[in-house]
Specification:
Blueprint (H helix, E strand, L loop, with lengths): L1 E7 L2 E7 L5 H8 L18 E4 L2 E4 L12 E3 L11 H9 L8 H14 L5 H8 L9 H14 L3
Parallel strand pairs: 1-5
Antiparallel strand pairs: 1-2, 3-4, 3-5
Pfam family, one: Fer2_2
GO molecular function: 2 iron, 2 sulfur cluster binding; isoquinoline 1-oxidoreductase activity; metal ion binding
EC number: 1.3.99.16
């Protein structure tokens, strides 16, 4: 076991865990940040997506020891009031059905829109293709990402 000092959602946290513990379990089990979901455990579904240094990252396979001085943002830290443009668009378009995948979808979309603030539909489909939605709300996800791109600060 080792003590890891982590910057998560702008705050410093400590976790006394094994070095190979996936970030997902540190977030959920040790820090109580349960917005990030477990889906597959092999980085294939996207439910566990968080930002590490601004990049969408699958936390289920990322060992906590790999974070180092990196900055982690979870769905809880995306915006203080849940009013990030992607979150607003998600609500306006009424994207979720069961909602399980939505935190990962939103985190992927937010990182994508930072890199590509005015995407074409094909760009959105490509960027979001690694996130699985069991309910099949892909058309609403695309619509929400397009709407969010119009809400971004210029």
């Amino acid at each position: 076991m080792a003590v890891f000092k982590l910057t998560i959602n702008g705050r410093t946290h400590q976790a006394d865990v094994e070095a190979d513990t996936p970030l997902l379990w540190v977030l959920r089990d040790h820090l109580g940040l349960v917005g990030t979901k477990y889906g597959c455990g092999i980085a294939q579904c996207g439910a566990c997506t968080v930002h590490v240094n601004g990049e969408a990252t699958r936390s289920c396979v990322l060992p906590v020891s790999a974070i180092g001085a990196g900055k982690v943002v979870t769905i809880e830290g995306l915006s203080a009031k849940g009013d990030h443009p992607v979150q607003q668009a998600w609500n306006e378009v009424d994207v979720p059905q069961c909602g399980y995948c939505q935190a990962g979808q939103i985190m992927t979309a937010a990182a994508f829109l930072k890199r590509n603030p005015k995407p074409a539909a094909a760009d959105i489909d490509s960027a979001m293709s690694g996130n699985i939605c069991r309910c099949g709300t892909y058309h609403r996800i695309r619509e929400a990402v397009q709407l969010a791109s119009t809400k971004l600060k210029k």
